[in-house]
């Protein structure tokens, strides 16, 4: 009964949000995907699609990706091509994507600094700043003291810790999508791509409603996705659907100007969930909200079966 009442409330709240202007910043983690680049003949299909979409995006770079195969010089050119795009805001995502809560402060601070060595130079050459940082797994540390220590370090190094509000497990769908294509099942791949878009739209509606409930007004959303084949093919579809729903596509800087991103964070664990939940002071209320979040259990089960078979 309680869950049904919450769903009804969100429906009402979502309708109220829909009557007002909605906006979102698209952010892409784990750039660059060098394996995909190599498989496409040293060409980034996602970057080509973004060229045609005419919208700002922010990327979060793992420089360690450049050494994931033997084509280091080619991979540097790929990274340079991302950074040089006028519509791209550049961010650091650490060197090799460790979980801060697992490796601790001393290891992680070195990851931050190592992760900027090429990116900062490239950004400067493109007339840009490297001023955003996103934690891998969105894990900001295992407790409040560890989190505060790293935030101080980032501030000292002129970084803005970057949140997200909507994320739809595109990394999960991408593995299912690539498996279907590899097995010569284009119809199944299309179904997976459409399910990814459908869940993403459900989550936008959901977090628009939760944000209005938590902050009292519409929120400039920040969407988190990844550099993968699924988004090469379906991020343009999602963007078009968002435009049809009257979302304005904005830069990360404009999104971060929303006063909500200055609200205190009441969650001090290492789980990487949406900042909208982290603004909820009461832990029971937070958990109650999280239980009503839209999910795709069939996709999750398929992913679990896929990963189990790989072991």
What can you tell me about this protein's structure?
It contains 15 helices and eight strands. It has a single domain (22-310), classed as Alpha-Beta Barrel (TIM Barrel). It is 55% helix and 12% strand. With 311 residues, the protein is α/β, with parallel strands linked by helices. Helix 1 crosses helix 10 and helix 3 runs parallel beside helix 11. Helix 4 (72-84) links the parallel strand 2 and strand 3. The protein is globular and about 50 Å long. Strands 1, 2, 3, 4, 5, 6, 7 and 8 form an eight-stranded parallel beta sheet that branches. The chain has helices at 2-18, 34-39, 45-53, 72-84, 100-103, 105-114, 117-125, 144-156, 170-182, 186-215, 229-244, 252-256, 275-278, 283-291, 297-310; strands at 22-31, 57-61, 88-92, 132-133, 160-161, 166-167, 220-226, 247-249.
- Mean pLDDT across residues: 94
Rg measurement, Å: 19 Å
Helix proportion: 55-70%
Q: Which sheet architecture does the biggest sheet show? A: 8 strands, parallel
What share of the residues does DSSP label as strand, in percent?
A: 5-15%
CATH class: Alpha Beta
- How many domains would you count in the coordinates? 1
Number of strands: 8
Separation of the first and last Cα atoms = 41 Å
**Superfamily (CATH H level) name:** Glycoside hydrolase/deacetylase
The CATH topology corresponds to TIM Barrel
Which regions are unreliable across 5 or more consecutive residues at pLDDT < 50?
1-19
CATH architecture: Alpha-Beta Barrel
Order of helices and strands: HEHHEHEHHHEHEEHHEHEHHHH
Number of helices: 15
């Amino acid at each position: 009964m309680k869950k049904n009442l919450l769903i009804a409330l969100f429906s009402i709240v979502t309708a109220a949000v829909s009557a007002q202007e909605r906006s979102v910043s698209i952010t892409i983690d784990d750039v660059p995907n060098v394996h995909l680049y190599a498989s496409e003949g040293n060409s980034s299909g996602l970057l080509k699609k973004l060229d045609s979409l005419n919208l700002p995006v922010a990327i979060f770079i793992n420089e360690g990706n450049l050494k994931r195969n033997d084509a280091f010089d080619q991979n540097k050119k790929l990274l340079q091509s991302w950074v040089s795009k006028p519509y791209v805001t550049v961010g650091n995502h650490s060197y090799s994507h460790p979980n801060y809560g697992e490796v601790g402060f001393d290891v992680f601070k070195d990851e931050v600094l190592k992760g900027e060595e090429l990116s900062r130079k490239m950004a400067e050459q493109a007339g840009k700043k490297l001023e955003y940082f996103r934690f891998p797994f969105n894990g900001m540390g295992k407790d409040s003291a560890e989190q505060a220590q790293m935030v101080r370090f980032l501030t000292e190094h002129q970084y803005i810790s970057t949140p997200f509000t909507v994320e739809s497990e595109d990394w999960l769908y991408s593995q299912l999508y690539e498996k279907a294509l590899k097995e010569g099942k284009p119809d199944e791949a299309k179904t997976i791509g459409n399910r990814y878009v459908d869940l993403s739209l459900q989550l936008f509606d959901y977090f628009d409603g939760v944000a209005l409930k938590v902050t009292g007004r519409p929120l400039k959303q920040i969407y988190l996705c990844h550099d993968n084949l699924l988004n090469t093919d379906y991020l343009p579809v999602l963007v078009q659907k968002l435009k049809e729903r009257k979302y304005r596509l904005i830069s990360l800087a404009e999104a971060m100007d929303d006063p909500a991103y200055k609200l205190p964070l009441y969650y001090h664990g290492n789980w990487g969930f949406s900042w909208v939940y982290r603004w909820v002071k009461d832990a029971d209320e937070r958990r109650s909200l999280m239980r009503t979040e839209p999910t795709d259990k069939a996709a999750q089960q398929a992913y679990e079966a896929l990963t189990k078979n790989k072991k």
